[in-house]
Each structure stands twice: as C-alpha cells, then as structure tokens.
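re: ur question from yesterday

yeah so i grabbed the chain u mentioned. its 1012 aa long if i counted rite. heres the sequnce exactly as i have it in my notes:
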Amino acid sequence: MHLVPRLGSGIPLVARTQEMRQLRAALARAERGEAGAVLLSGDAGVGKTRLLTALGEYALSRDALVLTGRCIDVREGGLPYLPFAEALAPLAGSTVATIAEAVKERPALGRLLPQVHQPHAAPVAGGEHVTMSSNERETMQRPRPEQDLGELQLFDAVLGVLTEIARARPVVILLEDLHWADGSTRNLLSFLLSRLRSQRLLVVGSYREEDVYRRHPLRGLLSEMVRLASVERVDLRPFGEADARAFVEALAEEPLSAEAVAGIVARSEGNPFFVEELLASTSEAPDCSDLPAGLAEVLLARLERLSPDTRRVLRVISVANDSVAHAALTEVSGLGESELDEALREAVQHHVLIIERGFYIFRHALLQEAVYADLLPGERTRMHAAYAARIRNRPQGRGQDARLAHHSLESNDFATALPALLRAMDEAEKLGAPGAALRHVEQALSIWDAVAEHPEGVDELRLLHEASYFAGTSGEPERAAAYARSATQALTPDVPAERAAKVWRRLAEALLVLEGTMDEVVEAINRAWDLVSETGPSSTRAWVLATRAGVLRVIDRPEEALRDAETAVSDARVAGATGAEAAALVTLGTLADSAGDFEEARERLRQAERKAREAGALNVELRALYFLALSYDDQAEIVPALEFCKLGRQRAEANGLSWSSFGLEIRARQLFLRYVSGDWPKEDAAGRAAPGVSTLVAARMLSIWALIVVARGRFAAAEKLVADIRPQWNADIQIGLAGGAAGIELASWQGEHRVALERSQESLAWLDSMQPYLLGGIRIGTLGLSAAVALAGAARMRGDVQGAAAAIAAGESLLEHIRACAEFGQPRSVELGPEGLAWLARAEATVSGLAGPADPKLWEAAVEAFGYGAVYEQAMSRWHYAEALLATGDPGDAERAAAEIVPAFETADRLGACPLRDALRDLAHRARVDLPGETTPQRRDEINPLTDRERDVLERVALGRTNRQVGEELYISEKTVSVHLSRVMAKLGASRRAEAVAIAYDRGLLAAPTSS
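ran it thru and got these structure tokens back, copy pasting raw so excuse formatting
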C-alpha cells in the first residue's frame, strides 16, 4: 500500500515558521507601499517551491495579484525572458479593466506577450535579438547604455505595468529556479530590483545554492542585488531532526516504526524531497535499504554535466565511504596531479564535494549512495581492493582496522577481513561502542567458515560469547539471548569445565532480563554451578556463585541467595576477583533492603559500587547504582534516588553502556522519578531510545514517556504510544504497568470512562496472569475506580438505576482487588512503602464517592499521603479534595477548597498538564476562585446567554485556538466545536469569531485570556 501522498497534494508546511514570517513581513511592507524583493536560496528538494506556494496562497487570501514564472534547464543560455513571460501571461488576457488598460498602454510588452499588439515597435539592429555567443549571453549582467532601445523599452514597460496594477491591489511576482535564468532574464530582474521604491510590489526569486558555483553568471548579480536596501535574502536550510520527524509523520498515512522513522530522518539529512522518496520506497519495500531508483536518477543527473575525470574521482570517493585524503585519491584514482586537481576543483565548485579538515567528502550522503550504487561490480571490487592495500601499507591510527575490514570484505578478501574485524571489535569495546563491536563480531561470524586459517586463540565459541555480551550491552536483549543459546549448543565434550561454566553463566545473565524465561535461567545457572561446584576457589567459581545468588534472590529463595553471595565474596577474595566480589555484595545489599535493614543495604551497595569501579566491572557498577537509587526510591526519598540515577546514567553514557540491561533500568527509573517529582522533560527525545535498539528497549522508555504525554493533553500522540506499547506488555512487566496506566488515564481525560474502566480491568487480569496480587495493581485499580465513580455519577444524573448499580458493582470489585494487592502483595522491603500507601489512600477516597458525594476527609488524607514528593499526583488529589469540599455546600469548606485549587492550578500550569489545569480552571470559575494570572468574569445583572460548553469553546477561541485545537482540549469533535460557535455568534449577534470574542469581553461574559 502506498503510504505517501506526493508533495504539493495537501502536505502541510512543516517547520518553516521563521521563513514564512520573513516572507509575510515582506508582503506586509509591500502592502504599505514599501516595495521589496526576497531572494530565497536552498538546496534542490529543500522545499523552496512549497514555501513559495504557501506564500502565494497567503497573498491571494489578502487580495493580492500573484504572478508565477519558472526558469527551465535549457543549455546554451536558456530561453529569453521565460519566467517573466510565464508570470505576466495572465495579464494579456485579463478582463479586469485596470489590468487590460495598463497592458494596452504598453505595446512594448509584445516582446514578452505575443497577444499584445505592437503597432510601433522600435526597430532593433540586426533583428529583434542581437546575435551573440553563448559566453557573451551568460556573462551579460545588466543593460548597457549602448544596448538596443527595444530591450530598454521592454524593461520600462514591465516595471510600468506592475506599478500601475499595484495601485489597485498589491502584486506579488514569484520567480523560481533563477540558477537556470538566461542573461536577458537576469538583466530584467536586475532592472526591476534596482527600481523598487513605493510600489505595492513584492518580487520573490528562488535559486539552488549548490548550482551557483564560483563562475556561475548569477553569482555576481546576486552579490550586487543583496546590497540593495529593498532586497533581503532568506536561506532555506534542511530540517533539523525534530522537524524532519514531524515531516515524516505528516507524509505517512500509516504508522511507521520508530526505527524506520529514524532511518529516514538520518538518510535524508533533513531534505524534504529526499524524505518523500525514501518514505515512498519504504512503503513499497520495507526491508530494502537500497536508494530509490527515482531519487538516484535525480541525484546522478546533477553529475552528467561534469567532466569524465571529475565523475571518475567521485566514483573513487564513493567507495571510500568516508572522508578521503588527497594522497589516497592520487593513489587510487590513477589520475595525474594536475588532472586530479582540476577534477576536485570542479566537484567542489559545483557543491558536490566539500572539504572538511583537509579531506574530501560528499556534500550529501545520499549522493554518495547513488554514485556507489551506479558502479559496475568489477569496478567496485578493484577500488575496494586498492583502498585495502593502501591501508595495509600505511598505518592510519584509530579506526584503521574497521576500514581495512570493510574494504577487505567488499573486495572478497576474507583472509584479511577476519583478523581485522577482531581487532576492530576490541578497539570498539575499548572506545565504549558496543553496537559497533557487535557489528564487527557478527561480520566475523558470517565469514568464519569461508576462511581456512583462523587467528590463534580465537574460535567460534568465543565469537558467540562476545556477540551475546555486545548485544546485551547495546540494547538488544533478545539477540543477546539467541547468541548465548547458540554458544551453549556449540559446546563440545573437550571444552574445559571452567570455560563451559562461563558459557552457561552468560546464558543465565542474558535470559534474566527477559520475561517468561526464569525456568531456563535457573537451569542455565545450575548447569554452570554443577561444572565448578567441586573445584576450589577461582574467579570463574566466584562469578558463577555471584550470579546464582542474584537469581535465587529473584525467585524468592533468600536464605540460599545469602549463602551463595557470602561464599562468592569469600571465593572472590581468595582468587582476587574484585568484580565478582562486587557483584555478590550487590546481592547482599538487596537482600538487606528486602529485610528492612536500609542502612546495611546502602552500605553494602556503596561498597559494591566502589569495588566494581576499581575492578573496571562496569555492568556491576551500574547494577549497584541502580539498586542504590531503588533503595531510596522505595522509601520515597526522591532526591537521593535521582542523584544516584544521574550518576549511573553519566557512568553508562561515558562507557557506551546506556542501553545495557542496567543502563536501561537507570534511564527508565530516572524518567519515572522525574515524572513523579514534577521535573518533566520538555523534549520528546527524553522518551526515545537510541536508533538500533530492540523494540522491547524502546517500549520500556516510551511506556513511561506516555504518562507525561497523556498528562500534558497530547492525546493524539498518546493514542499512538499506547497502541504501539501494547504488544510489548508480555516482554517486560514494567511496560505493562506504565503503558496500562497511561491508557486508562488517557481514556478518562477524554471522557471515555467506560473504556477507562475496561482498560483497568484488562490490565489487572493481565497482571494476575503474570503474578497474582502484584503491588502495581493498586495504582491500576485506583485509576479504574475513578472511571467507575464517573460512570455511576453520570448514570444517577440521567436516572439510570441499573447503570448506576453496574458501575457501583464494578467499583466495589476493583476496591476488593486493590485491598487484596495491598494485603498479599510483596513489597521489596518489609512493609508497603509511601508510594503504595498513597495510592491506597487515594483508592479509599475515590470509592467514597461511588454511591454519592465523596468524603472530604479521605481526600485530605490522600493529599497528605502524596506529600512525599509526588507533585502531579498530589495536585490531582487536591483537585478531587476541592470538589468534595465544594459539594458539602458549607461556606467554610468553600474557603478550604480555594486553598487547594490555587496550588494545584499552579502546579498544573508549571508542568504544562493542560487537562488538569483546565479542570481546575473550570472548578475555580464555578467556585468564584481567583487564579494566578487570570481574572474572573465581572458579575452582571443580565443573565449569561451562553451555556458552560459554549463559554468553554469561546474562551479557547479567544486564546487563538483553531476549531481542531479547541476540540482536542475539550475532548469533542471539530464539527461539534463549529456548531457551538455558530450558536454563540447567533446569540451575541456577531458575524465573525473575533467579533463574538470582543462582544463577550465587553459584556463580561469571558475572563481575560491567561498567559498559560
């Protein structure tokens, strides 16, 4: 199915706000009688035409006359005046009296417009156009005094007709692709721009920056024109990463994976045309990474006008797949020095190559792909072999082995490639790049059987072990487990026991991060233990014991875990295996935490962190930091928990372990704690995993980010996130907990309370299938309980006795499950922590409103319970507490409600939690509570003719919202918004939206707009 509508067919203008602002400002000046010109530059495909189209549409909406002309790529000078002839053609047949008269009075326009009669055209020596060479035509820049009189008359006629028409209405003339303009067009353009004064005229010309090389005839003219006071230049740059993502999402009619979007963004380098073509090819062949044929053809067409030597040099550089030194080109290209210099000069001047730090590189990576794909197979192999030979003969420092491996692989020299890949793997590991190390070891495995002589000390078992480790540390846990399983299958009877134990321990570690594999984990670590249990203390034995202790703790066998951890510490100290000792100390610390001895736990964990850092055991160090953060988090000590998360993240990033198992857990915990503490990241990147990591890892981060997206009221984005996360619930229970909560809250804020209740029930059933009475069920059940209360209240309002009874029954069932989770669930420490107690308090407060008005005292207790630092949840509880107080009708309670509404509103406003902020604003308006930065409507004797919903709609229109935005904020359709606005305008006697707002302010029916 084709995913991409072609450009120009309704694609929204993305990320060009600043450029459109400049163009609109130029138009506004022209409307005031300040004529001007804008020169719009940018690469091919960057969106110049789309921007000019948007400007033209805007100008038409302001009753301007828009005239558009385009240059075309015709060799030998082009067609004289072509863009002006095209732009002015509509004038010749116009039936508008002022335009027709203006054209009729200027017969010299007949040279541009054949429809215009020229009874007395001035004679021109040698015919209408003086014969000249293409070189003369290309170098002519402006009319000279001795130039033929007919051309000067034409120039004056064009300026005159535009000036005359501009007296009646503004005129905008758009000239595209000026880099292809002929000499006559350039002369006329120069004439016009130098005579812009007080006409209501705007001239906008676009050109490709990369095509205007040093000796291009337009270059000199541009440098002179930009010095004119009436001329400004706008450079249209490629999209940044965020804008490119938005553009991909605007183009695609069906959802794309995060990895697919990231790939398109990276390859396109922000060029909209490249994005479109890559997206189209993705829809047609999702697994194909080849350059689309249409895009390759467009890119290669630019190179056809270059000399054969230049094209040869470009082919040589495309094979390098990197920046290339001049000396390398001399050796590989086979050209002489002078020929190579001229070829490189031409490529640089035509903006095909750029020079970075003395090296040559393609200006666009996709152009390099196109040139490389166009090579013949034999040509490609020979060039790769030449680069490989050069690298072997000349040491090149860091990255040499990776480059040698690449060129050797591509030239089918596997005997050279294999040892180079292994050296590149070691180098990548030392540089903290596990993803690169994984690629190298996978390539080595792919050619292992094709190489007769293998490097000494290396076998396939070692490569599989390394592949598992690097996959695990680069965010691909499923592949880590697959390689570890393959390693166990490769074991033979002659493999030493200690080495076999390492292989089985690696499998246990790889499986431990995946859900549903615990039986296999236990079997693997027991196999490892069986191989070393009868041996004396050694490093291998200490590591196996440390890992086994950790597994036993997870499966709730604390006595055995304690015994193995203590034995591991003893063995490690004898063997000098400090890393294994640190790993065992982490388990001892977590066991102390579970027993409620927090001081001992934290001391053990700090000791483990120090020893792991000393030993260079980075994964153990991250594990220690994670459990330190978790120890403080469990006791609601959020500040120190965040400090350890920050330290752990810094250590992980510094060593290339950001997406290792505990690198991921630290990032996820930090993001969740930022959500809880009200330090919400502003950038979407905070919730995105790095490109190339598994969907499981990506979902782990996105599930937490979804909570923030929902709370901010970005419902369309949240719907997509919740749907994308759902298939990953079974892969990691934390994904299901956060993703399930986000889905429930999303439905609740949208007023879909039945959906919210069903999602809560579904999530609880799923949790029970994973493990009965998990503590996460308290939160999930409480969110569903709120939906049941809303359904019961709505049923009572409409007199639906059965509906109310059903909702009450559902709520009571949820409460029973919540209380069971609190009673039978197993907290990490001895007792339920502050977070669990807070959600339990909120559940009790919520259920008090199931059959009638809620109990304010219970909501007061919920507010206090979330006071440990859960900023957003406390603001939510304040909102419900205020509602409960107002429902009593007691004036004293109304004052107390105001004291809850204001701080809750301030919190929601600071966080950008729009749904909560709007709910509090509505509550404040009903309670006549003044909010910071807002004023309440003045009381008038007249009755307010607007309903609450109509006022809600008009308030948002007053803030500049579109109908669609109003609908999203009020959770109603765009059509419904339009109906409400029509009723408002009828009631107020207004003919326009703005007039309705003004009347409402004047009559005191609306509050003044807020900065929020």
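noticed a couple things. Residues 712 and 980 are 25 Å apart (CA to CA). also The beta strands are 36-42, 65-70, 171-176, 201-208, 231-236, 353-356, 359-362.
anyway ttyl
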